[in-house]
Every structure is written in C-alpha cells, then in structure tokens.
Amino acid sequence: GRGGVEVGQFSSSSAGDNNPL
C-alpha cells in the first residue's frame, strides 16, 4: 500500500514509500 504497510510485501505505489512490514 501507499503508506508502506503491506503484509510480507513492499509498498508499490511510490518509490519513497517502500517500507517492508
């Protein structure tokens, strides 16, 4: 998701939001 809150993935909406969760 854009906020960088993804389950076992990476955020895919914005390069700057790629935070693992």
What does the secondary structure layout of this molecule look like, with pairings?
Elements: no helix or strand
Q: Would you give an account of this structure?
A:
This protein has 21 residues and is mostly loops. It is globular. The mean pLDDT is 57.
Task: Provide a compact summary of the structure.
The protein is mostly loops and 21 residues long. It comes from Rotaria sordida.
**What's the number of helices?**
0
Main beta sheet? none
Radius of gyration, rounded?
6 Å
Helix content bin: under 10%
The shape, in one word, is: globular
Write down how many β-strands occur, each being a DSSP E stretch of 2 or more residues: 0
User: End-to-end distance, in Å?
Assistant: 11 Å
The average pLDDT value, as a whole number, equals: 57
The class by helix and strand makeup works out as little secondary structure
Features:
21 residues, globular, single chain, little secondary structure
